[in-house]
Amino acid sequence: MIQSKDYILRMIEEAGKVLSKIIGFKEREEFHEALQELELCYAEHFDSIHIETESHYIKLDMYGELLKHEADINSKLGDNIKAKELYLKALQSLTKAEIKSKSFDMKRIGLMNEIQESLNLIK
C-alpha cells in the first residue's frame, strides 16, 4: 500500500512539472514545443491501451488535463478536427474520473466545463 502511495505521489509531482512546462510553452505560443513535451509525457506515463481500462481517478484526471491542453494547442494551430477529438477524449477521461472518485472535485468540474465551452465553439 505504501509503495502504491509513493508511486502516485511521484506521478503527481512529475505531471505537475510537465503541466508547468506545457503551460509555459502555451503562454509563449511555442506550440510545437508543447506538443513535443506532451508526446514525451504520454510515452513515459500513459499506456494508450491501459488508460482505456484505467480505474484510478488521479491518473484519469491527469490524462484528461493533458488531453485538454493538447486540444487547446491544436485548436490554436487551426486543427479543429484534431482538437475536437482530443476534447472529447479529455471529457471522457474526466467523466470516468468523476465516476470512479465518487466525490465532487471543483477543478475537474471546471475543466469539464471549459472543455464543453471549447467544443461548443468548434464548428
State the domain count: 1
Helix-strand topology string: HHHHHH
Distance between the termini: 47 Å
Largest sheet: none
Q: What is the overall number of helices?
A: 6
Query: What class do helices, strands and sheet pairing give?
Result: mainly alpha
Q: What is the gyration radius calculated from CA atoms?
A: 14 Å
Rounded average pLDDT: 85
CATH topology: Serine Threonine Protein Phosphatase 5, Tetratricopeptide repeat
Sum up the overall morphology in one term.
Answer: globular
Descriptive keywords:
123 residues; mainly alpha; 85% helix
Care to give the gist of this entry?
The chain has 123 residues and is mainly α. The chain has one domain: Serine Threonine Protein Phosphatase 5, Tetratricopeptide repeat (Alpha Horseshoe). It is 85% helix and 0% strand.
Write the layout of secondary structure elements.
Blueprint: H1 2-27, H2 31-45, H3 48-52, H4 57-76, H5 80-101, H6 106-121
Helix pairs in contact: 1-2, 1-4, 2-4, 4-5, 4-6, 5-6
